[in-house]
């Protein structure tokens, strides 16, 4: 057989639910459109193209002319449309009904709008578990692409990975192409001839081999520095020229053509895995550092080439452990999915259920559920978008159930930790409380604007903080993969790294030294003198005709002094207010104690004049990124005119109030940056017991949502 090789070029173009419209447009102008313009004249070249559902819907609305051009190339046989789950979820985190439903939903959309029914799919983030095989096959898919790392983790040698393989589960078959890591790192970062030389060697050693490149289309223009490299400096044209010049032995083919024309290399059973970098990111920070140190220490060892495939990182599902906030989103999503399944079984209107299902599917978009070289969970607008759709789905479910206009209190293991949580709900809001974790409120949904005020994020150690402390670096003048770049988007980030001992939630009950200050508390340097922040509270639910109450009590201590703390959270029918009454008992006489209640508010960003603090008289006190140290006041207001919400916190006795921004130093594809996560507001008192050793305060929070319809429409256009 004469030396020849088949090359499958598989591009994955994606923008997540909730990303800014300007980001979509910039990626279109920098990547999607110019790639198509360069590709069109090369008649001898074929590619497989996956465009995620969120991006495809945006293109259909904003740039239908792009889809017209793609459609012509599909009809010419030059582009194969690759399907997948509609809103790009990690399939392993979904129940089977949603896995199959998402894939079939997108296949139907592609058939209606592009006239194609895909037979293959893109596996989001290449996160794989064997149990997916049967579900993917049941959804009508015959093949997909994973990384060669998956196969190497099963003990296969790189020389064996020269075609696709068949995987099996429960008698269902799926064909899987191993995407080459070598090609992922040379395309487009190395000169085109290096890729050609690599493929020429394979053509001689394995005539007829099928090699697969499967990676992000954003590498071609959107990733940092790549637009200049790929287009202005002509890398993509040089690559396509090289492919064309060598087409006698180097054939670019689609995945579908490979299935038709080449036999599988055999059968494989692949371990639960993802691409190599993802396995590292899913590890705890300390374990990441250890793995990184070991890998660097061994990389020049002659044995490393044989050992590297067996040195594995972590497991994707452990992002739900690494980031408590991921588990909160996941559990919220599962709660909606389960209720939707019950509504379907009850025979509710199919059109109403379809609208709810679309919100659920949008709320499953993977990007904010994890974190690596991309912002992921650290990007507030992506977290907010997930909750926006899940809250909207929840509200629509209660409408069809006929329970929206009632006030209710229920208990269940809503976050899958083996403990009971509490859900208080009325037509305006839903409050989720965790008695086992300090009786804290961990989610607070405002239905009027579909916003979770507690979509917050705890500041925690990350392995890449070592790079922040070491300073920026370059790639020696060459364009670099985002996995190799160390770029600071602003100065002084090494001075801004801080860590929180506790989650950034609300109803967090602190005892500080009497001398504690705004500075010491905001930096996490004030010792915690009580045991009420994270330890369990006893909980009771009280239900009245027009109100519900969660009563939480803990017999704990502060400074070793036994203290009983009771807090009662009350929600009334039809009200946008939440009332919390605190009662502290068994306080020592004539011994002043410093008590504070922490509240956090997410989605109210800093740096804009239309997002501001006000005092009880309506006087503005500055933007929400300001640090406030107020004394002898009875409240504080937070306003966000763009989001359309006012939050008025009032106390029935004068207090001090600390307020400060919670900001993270985090990593994105563009570099390291400071990200505003939430606003912490902490009323605090130096308390002295009455004659019976008691002290009490009531905190009322009123929420007002304005322009809710306009905000929802604006966000819908963005996604």
TrEMBL record:
Gene3D superfamilies: 2.70.98.10, 3.20.110.20. Residues 413-699 form the Alpha-amylase/4-alpha-glucanotransferase C-terminal domain. Pfam families: AmyA-A_glucT_m, AmyA-gluTrfs_C, Glyco_hydro_57. GO terms for biological process: alpha-glucan biosynthetic process. GO terms for cellular component: extracellular region. Transmembrane segments: none annotated. GO terms for molecular function: 1,4-alpha-glucan branching enzyme activity; carbohydrate binding. The keyword Transferase applies. SUPFAM superfamilies: Families 57/38 glycoside transferase middle domain, Galactose mutarotase-like, Glycoside hydrolase/deacetylase. This is 4-alpha-glucanotransferase. The lineage of its organism: Bacteria, Pseudomonadati, Planctomycetota, Planctomycetia, Pirellulales.
